[in-house]
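tool=predict chain=A
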Amino acid sequence: MAALITDSLKVDAGIEPGGRGEFTIWVGGVKVAEKSRHGFPSDKAILDSVSKAISA
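tool=predict ok
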């Protein structure tokens, strides 16, 4: 996912270890996407959320 964000949005993205099964996307200390009980958000939803957060 970090590579997809970097390649698509041309921003540095990294991976940090979390709890087992955790998947959370943070931008500037603000949570913009996360895995829910229904599963992972789509790549498009993640890219849209990150893009919106970095343009704010």
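The radius of gyration is 11 Å. Residues 1 and 43 are 8 Å apart (CA to CA).
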